[in-house]
Amino acid sequence: MGWFLLKRVGLMLLTAFCLTFIVFALTNLQPNLEKMAKTLVNTRMSDEEVARWLTRYGYEQPVLVRYGEWLGVMPGWTGSDENGKPIGRCLNPDIAPEDAPRFCGVLQGNLGYSTVFKAPVKAIIAERLALTGWLMLWVMIVMVPTALIIGVLAGMREGSRLDRGLSIFSIATTATPEYVSGVVFISVLASSAVGLQWFKGSAASAMEHMTFENFTLPVLTMALYGMGYIARMTRASMAEVMTAQFIRTAHLKGLSFGTVVVRHALRNALIAPFTVIMLQFPWLLTGVVIVESLFGYKGFGWTLVRAADNNDIELLLSCSLVAVVIVLLTQLISDIGYVYLNPRMRVA
Amino acid sequence: MTKLMLTGRHLHPMAEPAAESFKRGRIGRREFLATMAALGVTTAGALALGGIAARPARAAEPKKGGVLRVAMNVKAFRDPRTFDGVEMSNIARQCNEYLVRWKRDFSFEPWLLEAWEMSDDAKTLTMHIRKGITWSNGDTFNAEDVIHNLNRWCDASVDANSVASRMGALVDSGTKKAVPGAIEKVDDFTVKLNLPKPDISLIPGMADYPAVIMHRSYDGETDPMKAFAITTGACELVSWQPQVSAEVKRKDKPWWKGEFWLDGVKWTDYSADLTSMIAAFESGDIDTDHETAADSLKQTEALGLTNSEIATGSTIVARFNVGNKPYDDVKVRQAALHAVDNKVVLELGLNGKGKVADNHHVGPMHAEFADIGPQQHDPAKAKALLKDAGQETHVYELISLDDDWQKATADAIAGQMRDAGLKVDRKIIPAATFWNDWNKYPFSCTEWLGRPLGIQVVALAYKSGASWNETAYSDPKFDALLDKALAQPDPDKRRETMKEIETMLRESGIIIQPYWRSVYRTYRKGVMGCDQHQALEQHLDQAWIESES
């Protein structure tokens, strides 16, 4: 088990290393840097001004050197601004330039500074990830039980009218992407166009105080999309279990249908959905990109869009780090959980 | 009886003749009011003399209290002289102020200045600083602050300092600083600008959004909380989170100008997405917005919101860059101008929400506008011109920004050119990359915001070698005309020169300027005084909340 964990952590580090290097290389292509300089200083800057700015702020060094700086294995660049004041990667206004550390990268616990949000990346990620955490929590609370119930109900009598009805529902929800269902929900349930106006079409106020009114639609939009998928998986697994020998035995023992489903079938049928549910976390992380932008809820997904829009190098890198950790961590949990749920499996 | 003059003197002898020419339609309303103000006639007096019905008095007295919630892109703060979006200034302007304010009625109101005086030759500008204004740290606002800001504005060596180009004659093109000795402190409350050559655009330049007055100790600090630690305005900054939100609240201390009705203002960034903005209005999350796109007016109206409209000098130009073949040939450019009917472009590109323009970038909103008639629309001539130039097979490629109305306008222009038998391709570039080469594209559409004087924008955009000259147009004769116009403070005299400038600009064929835009702002019922401004400025000292949503 220990070896298994170690291997997984090693894999995680390797993936993070590769991914961040790719992101770093892409965000540091010359046109991207020029674009960034213009967004930061002035959109209508001349080419000479851009070149001068990039040199002054250390963007003209080789990509490997700069990646090393970000990692914290190379000393941070130093220089001076137009007024001759010392500037540098590791400098900040609160400490004297002489006292500033030479290295300041991820290894030193410094994720850098966001050029878009004008704040340390660490603080932004923490704040935005917390907001997305709330969204994901509610999505899970709504999605998982509903999906399991639908899946079990559909799978216990394969081919029945109930099964067909629920299957149509779950296929329809999974086939409708969030950007479609979200807009439909806003116009039907939140706008005066239809006149229902039960909910708010903007979740911006949910960042300060979550209410049923302002948080329902984003949660519903995300939950519905994932729900169908989990329900289909549960149904398949349930249907398979229901044809197993031990279920027939249970029937023949004279147990009622309800008891057979709850006592014997359910526990065995939930092993496969468990993995699927864990895999929903990485998916949720991408799903929030659309839903958060649509509903004006400024969480992780929204941050990612803004960072990518503005070529915010260090923020994008940290976003990829977060993504790698979440994906691999949920996979790890899913693997370990699978072992505990299924006694036939052993971790080598 | 109406009091005609501001002071006790009898009516200025020039007032009645001016009123006469206004009634006969020789000068416009805006210009008439400006003339009257210059002569020291009261507004009531001007209305009486000009025979203009006074606007109905405000139905309700302003009410104090409430936080105004505004939907606006919250851009990151930077040194104000390098602001490149009026949105930044709309937060800043509640805390710090301007020397002069460009009001909604297109007149200039002395703000931190009490008065100014331009000499007859337009070479000396004397600025009288308003007395009795104190910075929030207790310092008196005086000449020292004004000179500090003037010097900062004139520093053209700073990347992206756009005020330097607005300070025109005050900047030494060699040292890229203020001309030595040009800024003269007369006493604590008087500053004199001695210009090496006449320049009439200085005062309008000081009203422009990057020219916000900072404390004399300000030195380019980019943390907004520190930059606005010392202020003169009615509000103090609470927070400024780029892309997310910003907030100001009214200071406890009284404001020199009088009453600021709102308790505070909160701006929230809903990005450029229309759906989320409409949803925010419907949710009651916002009271007003920064700007409403013309094509969403129907939606906001259907929601029972009020749309406030103002015609502006804002426009779009489809311009040729003469540095690119075959656009160095005036015939190829003129062919495009003759192929396009600007009326149709206005209809298709903007749903008719504007005013037709005549391809010379000066319009009736400018005092010195000389009407040289509409652009001739003649598709047959367009084809003939192209044939003359030997470029019949040339395919124009019109580039535009990926933005609803700009895209539609470019499409309409391209469509008109195709109808005339010209070959046109369209290319759309997303905003993220469009500005990388905005002044180098061979043929593309650029948005231009309005400026108070007609000569200002022409000098900014079409003077040889000017940093914003995206056409690469260069003609010493044209430059000489610009210099001449810049030395003529009197709009009537300047009009003669403008006539030549406009004609020359149109004959050069470097721009298709189809229309002048109207801009809109939307607000809910119960919110007062936040009507749209021609330069999208938010003068929120005028706003108040009558009733909660």
From TrEMBL, chain B:
It holds the Pfam family SBP_bac_5. Residues 108-452 form the Solute-binding protein family domain. Coiled coil: none annotated. InterPro entries: Peptide/Ni-bd (IPR030678), SBP_5 (IPR039424), SBP_5_dom (IPR000914), TAT_signal (IPR006311). The chain crosses the membrane at residues 32-54. Its main location: periplasm. It is found in: Periplasm. Keywords: Membrane, Signal, Transmembrane, Transmembrane helix. Belongs to the bacterial solute-binding protein 5 family. This is ABC transporter substrate-binding protein.
